[in-house]
Amino acid sequence: MSPGAARDPSLSLREALPKYFAENHFGDDGGYGATWVTFKFGPVPIPFPNTAARVRAVRYHDMHHLITGYRADQATGEFEISAWEIGAGCRSYWAAWQLNLGGVAGGVLIAPRRTFRAFVRGRRTSSLYGRDYEALLDRTIGEVMAECGLDRPTKARASDAVLFPLVVVAGLIMGLLSILLLVLVAPVLLAVGMIRRLRTDKEARATA
Length: 208
Hints:
Blueprint: H1 13-23, E1 36-41, E2 44-49, H2 52-68, H3 75-88, H4 94-110, H5 112-124, H6 133-137, H7 141-148, H8 158-207
Antiparallel strand pairs: 1-2
């Protein structure tokens, strides 16, 4: 499958999501049913609980990758989608606000111009958070793009230049708090990860 095949505007989101999952090696269900997800802190993989709040947000987040065109297999794409979602708004999806603020902070450090452009684009368009998920699945990518205003160019305004630094500061604070939390709980999570690997290895040997 060629990269980006899932983003064909003629596909329904129901048709596109399995292709998107396959392109990005997310598993048949996008990882929604996983008990744990792995976050890489540098080269060190650290498992985190795949909470209901995270799954609730990620289902829309994956749709957003399809309608915005921001790639999920590149760090800059994740920074861009974070900035876009903050600009467009995450409604009551608090896990999305938390994750995206950290993404904006990372984007400013790695790809500041692209992150700002994505934030501006989000401010002129709308997100899917809060909409009927099942109904969205039967809409085409092209239709949803048009409804969200993603089929036309956007320009930055003075208000964007004022608001963006405030978002960055909030993102840096959120990022620092997340790092502090990670440092505090990393030993426990690493131990959990080791136990899971040992259990998996034991089960594999038992079925061999």
